[in-house]
Amino acid sequence: MNEMRVGKYIIDPALFTKGFAKSHGPFACETSCCASGVFVDIKERDVILEHKEAIKQYMDDTQTKDNAHWFETEVIDDLDFASGKTVGTQTHNDKCVFRQIDGRCSVQVYGDESGAGAWTYKPFYCIAFPIVVCGGVLTFDDYQQGITRCCSIVDTHTAPLIDSCRDELEYILGKEGYGELLTLRNRYVAEGTK
C-alpha cells in the first residue's frame, strides 16, 4: 500500500497494528506524562496567559502561581505546530506547572468549570497524547512506553490504537477525518491479508 494520508497527515500503520494490553490505555491515565511539561504552540501559550488569573484559581500549593515561570523563554521553530513555533511549559515540584497534586490539569479544570469546555484552553499535544504528530506523521508517542501501563503499546492487544484512541484521533482529524482513517484501516487490513 502506498503512503497513507488523511488531510495533511501521513498515517503510521502502527495506529492499525498496535494497541494497549487489556484494561490499559488513556482511559486509565496515570498522568505521568505531565512530569516533564509539554511543548505548546505559542498561540496556545498566549491564550493560557490571557486567562492566567482565572487559571491561578485552580492551582494548589504544589504549583507556582507566578505566570512568569509557566513557560520557557526559548521559542523553537517546528512545523508540527499550527503557527510553526513552539515553547515548552516549565516544571515545578517535578511536574508540569499546570499539573495539580491530584494529577488533574489546572488549564483543563478551568475550562471545564468555566463552562467553556475541558479542552478549550488545553494545549493540542496534551489532548492528543498518546497520539502525536512528528514530522507530519500521525503516530503513537512512545515517550511513556514501558514506563506506564496507560501509555505502553503491545503487539497482542484487544483493540488497535485507532479504536482505543478514538477521542484523540477525532480531535486531531475531526469526525470526517476519523472516518477516512477507518477506511484506510480497512484497506490496509484487506491488503495485508492477501
Polypeptide structure, described:
The chain has 194 residues and is α+β, with helices and mostly antiparallel strands. It has seven helices and ten strands. It folds into two domains: 1-25 and 131-194, no CATH class; 31-129, no CATH class. 32% of the residues lie in helices and 14% in strands. It has a four-stranded mixed β-sheet. It starts with a strand and ends with a helix. The mean pLDDT is 90.
Task: Chart the SSEs and their pairings.
Blueprint: E1 5-6, E2 9-11, H1 14-17, E3 19-20, E4 39-41, H2 42-50, H3 52-56, E5 76-77, E6 85-88, H4 106-114, H5 124-128, E7 131-134, E8 137-140, E9 153-154, E10 159-160, H6 161-164, H7 166-192
Parallel strand pairs: 2-8
Antiparallel strand pairs: 1-2, 3-9, 3-10, 4-6, 5-6, 7-8
Structural class: alpha+beta
Helix content: 25-40%
Poorly predicted ranges (pLDDT <50, ≥5 residues)? none
**Largest pleated sheet:** 4 strands, mixed
**What proportion of the residues form beta strands (DSSP E)?**
5-15%
Distance between the termini: 12 Å
Shape: globular
The total beta strand count reads 10
Task: Looking at this protein, list some descriptive labels.
14% strand, three-stranded antiparallel sheet, 7 helices, 2 domains, 32% helix, alpha+beta, four-stranded mixed sheet, 194 residues
Provide a compact summary of the structure.
With 194 residues, the chain is an alpha+beta fold. The protein has 7 helices and 10 strands. The strands form 3 sheets. Strands 1-2-8-7 form a 4-stranded mixed sheet.
